[in-house]
Amino acid sequence: MDAPRPAPVLHTGFAGWVHQNLFAGPVDTLLTLSGMGLLWLLVPPIADYLFIDAFWTGSNATACSGRTAFCWPFLNVRLTQFIYGTYPLEERWRVNLAAVQGVLFALPLVYAGPKFRKPLMLALFIYWPISTALLLTGGLIGLTPVPTNLWGGFMVTLVVALFGIGVSLPLGIALALARLSDLPAIRWLSVGLIEIIRGVPLITILFMASLMLPIFLPNGMSVDGLLRVLVGFSLFAAAYMAEIIRGGLSALPPGQAEAAKALGLGYWHTMGLILLPQALRMVLPNIVNTFIALFKDTTLVMIVGIMDLLGVVQAANSDPNWAGPNTQPTGYVFLGMVFWLSCYLMSRLSARMERQFNQNQRTR
Amino acid sequence: MRVLAMTPKPVSFWNDPKRRGMAFQVMATFAIVTFLGLAVKNAVDNLTARGIASGFDFLGQRAGFAIVQHLIAYDENARYIDAFWVGLINTGVVSILSIMLASILGLVVGLGRLSRNWLIARLALAYVELLRNVPLLLLILIVYFMGLRPLPGPRQSLHLGDLIFLNNRGLFLPQPVFDAAAPVPIFLTLVCTVVIIALLRWTWLQRIDQGRAPAWIWWAFSGLAAAPLAGFALAGFPVHLDMPALTGFNFTGGVVVIPELVAMVLALGLFGGAFIAEIIRAGILSVAHGQLEAAAALGLHRNLQMRLVFLPQATRVIIPPLTSEYLNLIKNSSLAAAIAYPDLVQVFAGTVLNQTGQAVEIIAITMLVYLVISVGLAGLMSFINRVPKLRSA
Amino acid sequence: MERWRHPVCPADPLDISLLHDDFETALPKSKMKFLAIACFLCASIVVPPVARAGTLDKVKARGMLICSVTESTPGFAAPNDKGVYVGLDADMCRAVAAAVLNDANKVTFKISTTANRFTWLQSGEVDLMSRVTTFSMARNTTVGVDFPAILYFDGQGFMVRKSAKIKSVNDLNGATVCLQSGTTTELNAADYFRAHGMKYEPVTFQRPDEALHAYEEGRCDTYTNDVSSLWALKLKLKIAGDHLVLPEIISKEPLAPGVRQGDFQWSNIVRWSLYAMLTAEELGVNSKNVDQMKASANAEIRRFLGVDGDLGQSMGLTGDWAYRIIKQVGNYAEIYDRDLGKGSALGIDRGLNALWKDGGIQYAPPIR
What we know:
The complex is a heterotrimer.
Chain A lengths: L12 H10 L3 H27 L19 H13 L7 H20 L2 H24 L15 H27 L4 H16 L2 H15 L8 H27 L2 H9 L4 H16 L1 H14 L11 H9 L9 H37 L1
Helix pairs in contact in A: 3-6, 3-13, 4-5, 6-7, 6-9, 6-12, 6-13, 7-9, 8-9, 9-11, 9-12, 10-11, 12-14, 13-14
Chain B lengths: L1 H5 L10 H33 L30 H34 L4 H15 L3 H13 L9 E3 L3 E4 L2 E4 L1 E4 L4 H28 L5 H19 L4 E4 L2 E3 L2 E3 L2 E3 L1 H28 L2 H9 L4 H31 L11 H13 L2 H28 L7
Antiparallel strand pairs in B: 1-2, 2-3, 3-8, 4-5, 6-7
Helix pairs in contact in B: 3-4, 3-8, 3-11, 4-8, 5-8, 6-7, 8-10, 9-10, 10-12, 11-12
Chain C lengths: L15 H11 L2 H13 L13 H8 L2 E5 L8 E2 L5 E2 L1 H14 L5 E5 L5 H6 L5 E2 L7 H5 L3 E2 L5 E3 L1 E6 L13 E6 L3 H12 L4 E6 L2 H9 L5 E5 H8 L8 E3 L7 E3 L3 E2 L3 H20 L6 H4 L5 H6 L16 H8 L3 H8 L29
Parallel strand pairs in C: 1-4, 1-5, 9-10, 9-11
Antiparallel strand pairs in C: 2-3, 6-14, 7-13, 8-11, 8-12
Helix pairs in contact in C: 4-10, 4-13, 10-13
């Protein structure tokens, strides 16, 4: 009779986890050790730079000299400019109001039940864009007009991104439907537009919008500089969106369309009630990924002279009053943190929405 | 049915899908054509009214400006068309290098994401999440300016013997220069390489067919590998190295890799690597586990399991998104405009446009070039994807 | 026709309701319809076109002068800490606004890049380009820009690190040069180095800030630009004292405001607004004494300030056009001093830009 074998200690508890996941064999051990070495090389200097060595107080460049570290005072002094650019001081409440409204409509949408979804959607997609445009530009509703050349900073980044996203979705759906259409002329026009836009870099489209649009317009007709970039940007976004939505539509089982036809639904009803809702739900993760990419791509508008967040930070970097070795890295690290956080939150949000939609589908 | 056919109801124009579709198409085409026509007419009006030159004659004029990196002969006396080619080649160089770096990084990190080692998987995830969520333009600026800072000036260069020098003007490498007798052994090398590749394929087919390759094949390979060496030896090694040397401000001689190129390649490679890692991970996960088990059950060797069962299925999933990622990298190389790398957009849509003022022609040419590259590469990759023929049916 | 106005588009100074009628009658209905669809597709709703009108009428109707300036060149155009654009270029815009609109502050400054400065002017996006732009033949004849008069006589120079021990441009053989693309600077540098049998490596940036940064990080041995800009940009460096502007000037860079070709009236207004400031300096009229000067017995001054005669009307302005410029903006000496000279952080000598009678070459034709 064999003696009962002892329980495999190494497979349970913390020690077991460590053994299984970090030191399962010689190769594994080597990998773990080199990974730890990498962490050791990276983490302490970053912590030093951002917190331990960082400069915390002061109000000019002399406060941030002597060692290489993050310059919080620079950020502190410049923060409002990074957010609003040169938007007039006494009018900034308008930007804040627009932002608060947006958050007030958008946040509950993520958590609200289906009952409240419709009014919230209406508020967010109809009321909010119009009110924001009126608020920011002024003029029409009796506020002091603020020309777009004064706009800047994170505000412009958000305007470009949200405008691009807001326009690209409906326009993308239209292009996708056109591309799947039975009418050859419509289909080819759509294919041409989509493929041309997707085939060239965004920067050339922005160059085209900002440099060439005036040449193609009748003499004397002019379009606002920011609006031109917005149009170029949303066209670019729409072409990518169209391809994603087309992917969703063609992935649907053909039975869906046939069933709709059998019920006597016309083209628009079939699309609007049966096919598009399913397709959009299916490609939601891809749509959000495109949004994230678009959000990052807003930085390119700097190259055509729009003062977005990157542009404003670049300009602040060359302020003679802040001339010092820590200014530029501080600006870049700040930018990196802002964009990283925004994109990361967006991807978390999308994961949440995805779960929620799927839940609804199951309970139905 | 018959009753219906005999009494055709008069359908109004807008209720007849065929005619309605026709009308709709005609309207859309008319709209677009008129729109474009008006745009062209406006452009012509505007350009003539303001005395702006138009046409493509400018391409033959003297450019008059210098470009820091040119792989073909170019100086200030060259023409604008030469500047165009220099820019295009530079775009090609940065694209190819960054695609290579991104692919390697992507493969390593993608495999790392799937590692059973917890720490490695987490590190790979951190890399992907960090790089994917940062704007590429910012990454380029950071890599360029933060990378330039710690590098020493030419006089304090970091160096590896007297061969390789690194400073804030670039990386200086010795350049092999071929003498007059060189073409013969070089040609020999090329021929041998082609023959070796052909033989490898033949050997592979033999193995599948016969189970083994003939023994003499190894002699053939050795011979083919030795021949070019012998050729060079016979020609008296007709090659020498042009060494970089410090003269005045900077190094001259050798090959210089400018910092802008390095920054572009690093930034594009790091950025693309994060996306390619996810593509590769998805491709690997897409192959059902049972496939490998089945291959093992058939008694296939681990190598063959990979080559015959796993890779063909994984690449089928990987190649389409990989293609679009490569295309993205090529298009994103246009961000060189932000730093001073002389790519097509920087040289042609930047300097040349400003010197000549002919925005319409230049932007059109630039867009067309990218369009041709995109369509061409997409076609090539879909051709490659058709090679491992495997139908799901 | 509200549908033509986009929600994001700011209230345009152009009177939309009035002009839109033009647009409707100018195009047949069918084209209107397609245009509506096309514009809707593009999600761009544009300001309708004006009938081809003179720039002066356009500016007057709008009540605002639109002027393009640089991103940020201290001394020429850069926002001060209150966000107001100051500098010689900005003051040129203000002078025109004072002459035309009787309010030097009725200027909308638009930041243009080297890439879009000419197209913006050509397309009517801006009324006046005052953007450290060199007056050259090709720009005049093929790019379609008219340069009414020269605001500032500049030349291209080089900035180097003091530690490099470079004394003269001739020491720059083999140097790496940071510069900005699309400028005359780029071509001049090429010509100069060639003509002197010297080698150089250009590192070409799109924006001046990045070029300067790269020079500062040691990417280049020297940074080249117009000398005035070098002095201005030097202030942006971490330790301005470590750098040196070389004495030689390798080119002529007459910086001039630009207007569209073909609108002679507008061109005249810009030309004489600039000459008015020069003439005022010559006559000893400045913003402080201009009111007393109105009572002067000097016939030249009386004519200049519009007390006698009515020269302003020949340009479509009122007789006291020059008075307004001097009163609201100042004479050339005043703007030079506060923007570039002793009264500014730059402290650049008048040099070539002194009046002809003081040894410079600034010379205004007689106002009579």
